[in-house]
Amino acid sequence: MISNIEEDRQVCVSAPGKIILFGEHAVVLGKTAIATSLSLRAKIVITRNTENKLNLELPDLKEFGSGSWPLEEFRKLNDFPKGDIADPLKPFECNPEFLNQLLTFTSVKGIATFLFLFSAITQCTKGFNIKLSSDLPIGAGLGSSASFCVGLCGGLLEAMDIYACGKCDQCKGAHKNSDGEHNPCTVQSDLINLWSLQGEKLMHGTPSGIDNAVSTFGKALTFTRRAGYKILDRGIPPLRILITNTRVGRSTKILVENVINRSQKYTDLIDPVSNLIDTISMQCLACFERYEADSNFDELQSAMELMFDMNQSLLSGCYGVGHSSIDNIVSITKSMGLHTKLTGAGGGGCVITLLKPSTDSQQLEQLKKALSDAGYESWEATIGDPGVLIKSL
Ligand SMILES: Nc1ncnc2c1ncn2[C@@H]1O[C@H](COP(=O)(O)OP(=O)(O)O)[C@@H](O)[C@H]1O
Ligand SMILES: C[C@@](O)(CCOP(=O)(O)O)CC(=O)O
Ligand SMILES: [Mg+2]
């Protein structure tokens, strides 16, 4: 018999999307990338049920909508994670055999990812109703997959009362914001981040880990595969960024695989490119530090504009992840003296344009209309938002 408290308990979690300022794809190859969170967020609501079922609603995935499965259906699978490996405090990769068994329930990789994380974290011991929706365009380079994983893992760990910190005061909600939400402590956030990385691996094979890190911790951070994340405690300077969605769908998994294959096949040609992108990321950090010291925004803006152009040229011309729609937006914004680069995996998806401090509302409307007339949707980004937020009712 579930106690009333548990049965009535509701866990609400949100996790931000992101933009990568510099270093996408190169970060998969071990170089430095810089990313910052967005105000667009994935939202998950988790409530208990007494039906011993998983009831799932994914309103943003029209081809799915909703689904319901008895928990026993998963527990009886040959490769259901159990025993020593199945310690929810020690994130583990999905067994390929188990993935194949999960893919008998759904052909959608994202849902199979959901079912893996649900099975691994909850052991399918309790029935839950789960609804996941998002402000983020899906598959557009703004980290929707990572925010999906981070929100889900944060919510499931909370709903199962699984805390790497043993449920410290912060994770008990000692420092709630005005909406009654709290950021989990660093120890619990690291657990959420590592589980989310396992989800990202299922989504697109060889993620660097930057997307789930910035969705977990928020603000802005640098990332390398070797050293992991380093949060920029002072955030980033007040850059004005316009996000434009090409509305061209693409597969992060395929784009990432293509860059890896090109790097392995043409190592002597691509390594210098990756090293230059690493230099761009490091130069961006140096510019941020210089701005902190001298507040010379014009100097910062000029350097950022050059680095945007360089990184875009290298991504498109050398890594091969450009697209004609991206080139079109680069051209439209350049005609207005602005500089644009793709963000995320490229091949369509979203681009980011560096607005000038002097770009006034009339110029911005003129730019957005030119982009809209060309078939693109654009909006000024709010960056540096908090990472995963949890509200337990
Ligand atoms: N709101 C959502 N609802 C359901 N699935 C989602 C949602 N957001 C992301 N996903 C999953 O993430 C996948 C997109 O991941 P990816 O190709 O990496 O694009 P992105 O650049 O947005 O991270 C989708 O195909 C879907 O499986
Ligand atoms: C291309 C890459 O650098 C970022 C992928 O971003 P997104 O999934 O397109 O939002 C891959 C990675 O770092 O995992
Ligand atoms: Mg993604």
Automatic annotation (TrEMBL):
Annotated GHMP kinase C-terminal domain residues: 301-370
Transmembrane parts of this sequence: none
EC assignment: 2.7.1.36
Pfam family, one: GHMP_kinases_N
NADP found in the keyword field: no
Protein name as it appears in the record: Mevalonate kinase
Gene Ontology BP, a term: sterol biosynthetic process
Pathway noted in the entry: Isoprenoid biosynthesis; isopentenyl diphosphate biosynthesis via mevalonate pathway; isopentenyl diphosphate from (R)-mevalonate: step 1/3
GO cellular component terms, semicolon-separated: cytosol
Sequence ranges assigned to domain GHMP kinase N-terminal in this UniProt record: 120-160
